[in-house]
Prior knowledge:
Layout: E1 4-13, E2 16-26, E3 31-35, H1 42-50, E4 57-62, E5 65-66, E6 77-80, H2 92-102, H3 107-120, H4 136-148, E7 154-158, H5 166-183, E8 186-191, H6 194-200, E9 203-208, E10 211-216, H7 218-223, H8 228-233, E11 238-247, E12 251-255, E13 261-266, E14 278-283, E15 288-289, E16 297-308, E17 312-319, E18 322-329, E19 339-344, E20 350-353
Parallel strand pairs: 3-8, 3-9, 6-7, 7-8, 13-20
Antiparallel strand pairs: 1-2, 1-4, 4-5, 9-10, 11-12, 11-14, 12-13, 14-20, 15-19, 16-17, 16-19, 17-18
Helix pairs in contact: 2-3, 2-4, 3-4
The chain binds adenosine-5'-triphosphate.
Amino acid sequence: MVSIRAVDVTKRFGQVVALDHVNLEIRQGEFFTLLGPSGCGKTTFLRTIAGFELVDEGRIYFDEEDVTYVPPHKRDTGMVFQNYALWPHMTVYDNIAYGLRVRKLPRDEIDRRVKWALKLVHMEGFERRRPHQLSGGQQQRVALARALVIHPRVLLLDEPLSNLDAKLRIEMRSEIRRLQRELGITTIYVTHDQEEALAISDRIAVMSGGRVMQVGPPEEIYLRPANRFVADFIGRGTFLEGRVLETDHELVVELESGLGTVRGVPSRSDRRISVGERVLVAIRPESFTVAGSEGYNAFDVVVRNISFVGSVKRVEAEAGEKLFIIDIPVEYDVSIGGSLRVYVKPSRTIVIPLE
Ligand code: ATP
């Protein structure tokens, strides 16, 4: 088990800055996810950790060892790709054994390890099949076994589930998490799917334009986004703008569009918010309630749309020409065009600095 440290890592491709002074520390045995839109630099970061890309600036450490210029085959990382990248002409057994043969391990040791890896991913009995005789999920299990069989110090997963259907993705992600916990292996996982990231990770780094926007556990990223980008990228929400009137134990914000004042708490930002500053107020759909009292923030909204999303009714509503997204209990009666009074606790009203 190793920890990984990227210090001021910058990587350019011509004019494109794929990684812009990235500083990240991934703890021993941690399941760490890089999350962000297409092109934000997730894959490039993973490839610099594996050693497939050399950084232009900065350093990479595995524990105390500086691996910045160590070639990939000496870094001991196991990588799994989106398209599995299995060799089509080789059997499952040979695909998994390949990395061990390259390392010139004795035959019985190879056999022992391949059997161990097949058992780990529940694929015993498939040794003689070729990749085209397997389902997508089975191919991904083989790809995982192939990465794990070399006993890597770090497991790197680049959107490993994106070719699978929705149900299988959910099954496979618990499977990956189980394996990772069982082996205690430090893992970096890349995805652009925020729900997947929230479900699987110990901590998440949200990236945009080659930069790290926020690092934290899933709850913190979701409930206390550090800036507008993170708030918007992770989940739905109501976003209001205003100016800070008071900063005591909570913040008091005078909202624009005649929505009155609200009390809230600061987001996980590095910067303190001061009186007079313009801010964004973010509220998650499930933070609203239809019952409240003193001490809550109240809004009178007009219902514009209602959709039933299984566990709740999701209401799109309007007040002061702002869009509100509100989850309410299924049994609660609302109608389009009707008015509704909703409440939010100050602790769920997140105040974000507007850079
Ligand atoms: P995706 O989710 O689409 O895979 P990503 O977040 O993994 O995106 P990267 O693949 O790391 O993003 O790409 C970051 C930026 O660097 C993009 O603008 C991309 O076009 C550019 N880039 C990546 N690899 C190369 C390369 N080999 N040559 C030139 N530009 C590249």
